[in-house]
Amino acid sequence: MDTDKVFKALADPTRRRLLDLLHEKNGQTLGQLCENLDMARQSATQHLALLEEASLVTTTKRGREKLHFINPVPLHDIYERWVRKFERQRLSVLHELKTELEGNEE
Cα 7–1–69 angle (5° rounding)? Predict the structure, then answer.
């Protein structure tokens, strides 16, 4: 896994939105994904290509359609490498403190 490609792919809000859409309903066509985005198909295709390059999205052909599927393995690898090593309890306490100090409610 190329961690740099995964982080680069996740850095863009549109690509995160595409992953959210695939999480909601896996196996969508470009047209289905574009229905929930405010951009041209060509732009969405470029974002999907970066997600594929990072192995966050895989595709398969069904007739003339190309279906897109989320691949959670790279996300799990990042979780194991960068998140899990921190204790969950400490993260929860820090998150609660940050929320309280910023006056945000979730």
Answer: 75
